[in-house]
Every structure is written in structure tokens, then in C-alpha cells.
Amino acid sequence: MTDDILVAGVGVPDTRLAREATELVRDETSELIYHHSRRVYLFGALQGRRRGLDYDPELLYIGAMFHDLGLGRRFHDSGRRFEVDGAEAARRFLREHEVPEDGVRRVWTAIALHTTPGIPEFMEPEVALVTAGVEYDVLGIGYGDIAPADRAAVLALHPRPDFKRRILEAFTRGIRPKPETTFGNIKADVLEHYVPGFERGDFVRTVLDSPWPE
């Protein structure tokens, strides 16, 4: 691997796989999602360096770049969680490029679990660091873990103007067509805030109202 650019000491993979992934994401998503996805890679890699984790930069990059692909219009009728749509798209892409199955599995898992806190951190580094990058960029978790100069270097390349509002709008657009996929996960919060009339699923009611007779 060579680096097309070094950001805060982190190299962005410059391989055919990485370049084609970047092209695909730029073709199918907005500038908002593109810059967010690149920041997720860079912040995840910086957290990996801080934690002393040995990760595969190419796999981490693919996981970061595809993690929000499932919000796109072509997935609005899938009936599946957007995380799974993105994971499935990444799996097809990686298999087309003959990436070994262990790498495919790691990327699929990293994307599918990136909104499920409390689990990825105990898994393979690529899985843990996609979530770490997402949590850093969207929620500010561990904000002080990355040096201000490193954070500034990332933002100079991939700025985040009005990001909080715009990413919530993107989440809403991506999941509003399939509200049933928010049951039991954090995206129900998004629809509750931004979609009038949305009623979130209730786990307790689901248990009590199940067809079991007792």
C-alpha cells in the first residue's frame, strides 16, 4: 500500500480497491456523506493508533466509506435496516474484488453494527474502529482523545459545516420510508423528533401482546 495523502500521520489507502470504493461512494451519496465517511476513517484510525490496535487500513477504509451507503434512495424500499443495506453492498463490492472472506466478514460486521454501541469495541479492530470513528464524528464520544492539531488537520481536508443538523436530516430521509426498521435501535429517536405521527415500537408491549396464551 502507498499513501495518496497523509493526514495527522494517518495514511489514506491508495489501492485500486480503495479508489473504486471512493468513486462508488462519491457517485451514490452526497458531499455530506462522503466527507463524513472519510472523517470516520481518519478518526477511527487515530483512535486505533491511540489504543495500539493493529488494524488493516484498507478494510477499515472500506467499512468507513460504505457505512452510511444504505441511507441512499436505492435502498428506501429494501425493508431492511440501512446498516444491513450498506453492509450487503460492501460485501458484494469486496467479493467482486476477490477479497478473502475473513476480510469481507469484518467489513460486513463493522457496518452492520456501527449503530449498536457496547458490542463493536470488543470485536476485531476494524469493527471496533468503524464504530469509534462514527461515535467520534457524530456524537463526540472521546472528543478529547484526539489532539486538537490532529482534529484540525482532518477538518481542514473534510470540513463539517452545519453537520449536526444536516446529518440528522440525512438520517431522516434515509429511514423515513421504512420506519419499521427502527424498532429497538437508536434511529427511532430520529423519526420521533422529525417525523410527525411516528410511533416508536415498544418492546414491553410487543412481549405482552405476543400470541403466547399465558
From TrEMBL:
Q: Which Gene3D superfamilies match?
A: Hypothetical protein af1432
Signal sequence bounds = none
Question: Which CDD domains does the annotation name?
Answer: HDc (cd00077)
Q: Which InterPro entries match?
A: HD/PDEase_dom (IPR003607), HD_domain (IPR006674)
One Pfam short name? HD
Record domain HD: where: 34-121
* Full protein name: HD domain-containing protein
Upper taxonomic classification of the species? Answer: Bacteria, Bacillati, Actinomycetota, Actinomycetes, Kitasatosporales
